[in-house]
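Bug #77: duplicate submission created two jobs. Keeping one. Sequence:
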Amino acid sequence: MNPALHFYNVRLSEREAWLGTMIAASFNALGMLLEVALLQKIPGVSARPAVLSGLVGLMLLMVLFSRRNTPSVEWASVLYMVNTGSVVTALLLTNLQFAASDLNWEPFQASKLGCLIAAMVAPGFWVGLLSILAHCLGALVQFEFFLAAEMKTNIAAAEPWPIIAFGLAGILALVYRFRRVLLEQEVARIQAQNFAIKRLANAFLNIRDLMNTPLQVIEFAVDELRNSNELHKTTLDRIERSVQILTEINSLLVQHEKEIEWQSK
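Kept job's structure:
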């Protein structure tokens, strides 16, 4: 494995990064749509943050789909962070209202899901890490500083350790995913290198076969000249043609030598 390349520097393919951002935007649009439907049954909780976040996800999905033939890892990362920002903001605005209005509120479930989704579909390691931290730390800050003391007492048995656990699980899953991608890329590189080596080996075997005939001609011609006191023009012509063939073969060898140097870099 290349010692200079670490899993956190792995670059996904453009299409894989683009697809991951499309999946995240789809989760945003569909998830917020379901939340809006749920809010119809819970009075006192504004649906506006969920609607706005869902619209952001939908618009991002439309942009991503329209540009699917020209994907870019950089733009996928930017759009992914925009999507994450809209989701985290919507959750920050609605969690307090859920806590005050819904007696059966399960704290920070969407944030926990966001940690896992980021680990699975983020277009880059650092983008995924920032997204997980945004979901996890956003919930922790809200729990520590914005929930009323009575609300904190009601959910103290459940939080904040579960959201911390989900954040750590998301980070571990993200590390595992990019380590696996690094190994897959390394295997692909080695396979490509082996293919190139086999191709070069076959080329050198063919060159060796091509060299046999002119070498034999030169050898026979030299023997003939040594055993004769006369200068044979036809023999010299054969030698000259053989030398020309060997010169052409040498040019081929130089080309393959450059290819070997390129493969070793």
